[in-house]
C-alpha cells in the first residue's frame, strides 16, 4: 500500500454525535462504497482517518431476482458471493484495520465500522437507477406486481447490504463486547435503519448476526450484517397476515401472554425475553420492547440504554448452557418501511440448532421440504435451563 493520506471530515460530511455520546464519521472506500465509523463515547481514537488507497476492481453488477411461481417467493441470484472470503488466517482478516501486509476493507483503526458489502445480495443499484426494480418510479412494477405469480419473471435485486464490525479484534461476537461497545453498535443499527429506510426502493431493513461455523459463518471476526430488501420478506408478510386476522395489537397480546407464563427468561423495565410458546428451534428466545416501536430507529434513549447490558446478559446466558460457545442467528425483525408499522413490533428472534453439547438439529425432510416443524425440546424445559444458566452469568461490565 502507498503511504496513507488522511481524511478529515469536511463540514458537509455529516459527522454527528448520536445517542450516548457515540460519534458518526462517514467516508468512502476506494471503489466508492460507503464506510461509516461509529466511535465509542470517550474513544481514544483521533478524528482523522486514513484514506483507502487500494486499487480495487469495479463493483459487481447488481444481482437479479427470480420468482418461484409455486410459492411467490423471490430468490436473489447473487453469483458474486461465491468469491467471498472463507475462513482466512488472522493476518489476512478482511475486517481488521488495514496494515501494509493486510489490505483489508477498513483503512484505519476503529471502534465500530459499517460498510457496504463488496459482494452484496441486494444492490448496489437502487430503484431510481434501474427500470425493472420493484418500486422504481419510472417502472411499471411495484409491490403489487411482486405479489402476482408468473413463470420466468425476473426483477433487479435493488437494495443495500452492509457489514457491521463490532470490534477491530479478530475473534469474538456481540456477546463478547463491553456494554459501552454494545451501545455503540445499537446506535449504529438505529442510525443505519433510518438511513436505509430512506433509500428509494427499500421496503424492509434487517440487522442480524450469524455466530459460529455451524451456522455457516466464514469470518470469525465479530460482525453482523444489515440487509435492505426491495420487498417485504415472507416471514414479515406472515406476521402482517396474522395481525390482519386477529388485531393490530397482536404483539402486545403475545407479550402479555408470555409474561404470565413459565417461559420468561429475562425482564427489565423496557424489555422482556422469553422462549416462545411454539418454539421451533432447540434454543429459541424472543426479546420484545414493552411498548410498540416499529424498528430500532424508533427506540428511546432509555430503551437503548437498557438493551445494551440486557442483550449481552442474554447472549452470555446462551453460552453458559454448554462448555463451548453456542452457534446462533440473532435476527432483529423490524416493521416494513411503508406498511404495517402499527402491526409489526420490533423484536429479536435468537435461534440455535444446538440441541445438546455435541449435537445439532438439522432441518431434514419435514422441516426443509414441507415447512412442518417438529421441536425436540419443550419450550418450558428450555426456558428453565436458560434461567439456570443466567444465574451463573455476571452482570456485563
UniProtKB/TrEMBL annotation:
Cellular-component GO terms for this entry: cytoplasm
Taxonomy, superkingdom: Bacteria
Active site per UniProt: 223 (tele-ump-histidine intermediate)
Keyword Transferase: yes
Gene3D superfamilies assigned to the protein according to its UniProt record, in alphabetical order: HIT-like
GO molecular function terms noted in the UniProt entry: UDP-glucose:hexose-1-phosphate uridylyltransferase activity; zinc ion binding
GO biological process, one term: galactose catabolic process via UDP-galactose, Leloir pathway
Segments forming domain Galactose-1-phosphate uridyl transferase N-terminal: 107-232
Keywords, ordered alphabetically: Carbohydrate metabolism, Galactose metabolism, Metal-binding, Nucleotidyltransferase, Transferase, Zinc
Reaction(s) catalysed by this chain's protein: alpha-D-galactose 1-phosphate + UDP-alpha-D-glucose = alpha-D-glucose 1-phosphate + UDP-alpha-D-galactose
EC code(s) of this entry: 2.7.7.12
Family annotation (InterPro entries): GalP_UDPtransf1 (IPR001937), GalP_UDPtransf1_His-AS (IPR019779), GalP_Utransf_C (IPR005850), GalP_Utransf_N (IPR005849), HIT-like_sf (IPR036265)
Listed cofactors: Zn(2+)
Pfam families cross-referenced by the UniProt entry: GalP_UDP_tr_C, GalP_UDP_transf
Pathway the protein takes part in: Carbohydrate metabolism; galactose metabolism
Residues of the Galactose-1-phosphate uridyl transferase C-terminal domain: 259-391
Family: Belongs to the galactose-1-phosphate uridylyltransferase type 1 family.
Protein name listed in UniProt: Galactose-1-phosphate uridylyltransferase
Amino acid at each position: 500500500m502507498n503511504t496513507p493520506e488522511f481524511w478529515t471530515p469536511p463540514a458537509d460530511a455529516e459527522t454527528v454525535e448520536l445517542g450516548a455520546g457515540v460519534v458518526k464519521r462517514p467516508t468512502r472506500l476506494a471503489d466508492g462504497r460507503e464506510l461509516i465509523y461509529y466511535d465509542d463515547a470517550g474513544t481514544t481514537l483521533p478524528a482523522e482517518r486514513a484514506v483507502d488507497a487500494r486499487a480495487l476492481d469495479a463493483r459487481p453488477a447488481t444481482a437479479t431476482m427470480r420468482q418461484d411461481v409455486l410459492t411467490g417467493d423471490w430468490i436473489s441470484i447473487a453469483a458474486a458471493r461465491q468469491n467471498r472470503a472463507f475462513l482466512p488466517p488472522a493476518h489476512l482478516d478482511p475486517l481488521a484495520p488495514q496494515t501494509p501486509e493486510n489490505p483489508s476493507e477498513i483503512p484505519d483503526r476503529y471502534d465500530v465500522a459499517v460498510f457496504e458489502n463488496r459482494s452484496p445480495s441486494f444492490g448496489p443499484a437502487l430503484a431510481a437507477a434501474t427500470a425493472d426494480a420493484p418500486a422504481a418510479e419510472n417502472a411499471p412494477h411495484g409491490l403489487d406486481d411482486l405479489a402476482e405469480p408468473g413463470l420466468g419473471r425476473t426483477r433487479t435485486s435493488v437494495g443495500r447490504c452492509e457489514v457491521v464490525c463490532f470490534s477491530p479484534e479478530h475473534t469474538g461476537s456481540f456477546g463478547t463486547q463491553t456494554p459501552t461497545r454494545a451501545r455503540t453498535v445499537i446506535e449504529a443499527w438505529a442510525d443505519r435503519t433510518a438511513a436505509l429506510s430512506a433509500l428509494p426502493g427499500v421496503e424492509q431493513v434487517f440487522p442480524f448476526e450469524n455466530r459460529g461455523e455451524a451456522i455457516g459463518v466464514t469470518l470469525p471476526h465479530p460482525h453482523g450484517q444489515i440487509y435492505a430488501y426491495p420487498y417485504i420478506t415472507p416471514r414479515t408478510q406472515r406476521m402482517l397476515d396474522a395481525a390482519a386476522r386477529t388485531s393490530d395489537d397482536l404483539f402486545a397480546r403475545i407479550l402479555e401472554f408470555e409474561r404470565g407464563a413459565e417461559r420468561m427468561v429475562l425482564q427489565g423495565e423496557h424489555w422482556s425475553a422469553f422462549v416462545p410458546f411454539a418454539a421451533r428451534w432447540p434454543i429459541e428466545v424472543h426479546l420484545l420492547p414493552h411498548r410498540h416501536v416499529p424498528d430500532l430507529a424508533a427506540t428511546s434513549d432509555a430503551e437503548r440504554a437498557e438493551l445494551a447490558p440486557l442483550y449481552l446478559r442474554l447472549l452470555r446466558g446462551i453460552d453458559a448452557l454448554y462448555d463451548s460457545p453456542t452457534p446462533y442467528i440473532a435476527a432483529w425483525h423490524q416493521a416494513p418501511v411503508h406498511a404495517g408499522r402499527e402491526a409489526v413490533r420490533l423484536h429479536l428472534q435468537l435461534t440455535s440448532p444446538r440441541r445438546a453439547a455435541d449435537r445439532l438439529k438439522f432441518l431434514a425432510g419435514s422441516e426443509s421440504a414441507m415447512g412442518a416443524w417438529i421441536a425436540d425440546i419443550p419450550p418450558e424445559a428450555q426456558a428453565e435451563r436458560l434461567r439456570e444458566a443466567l444465574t451463573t452469568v455476571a452482570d456485563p461490565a
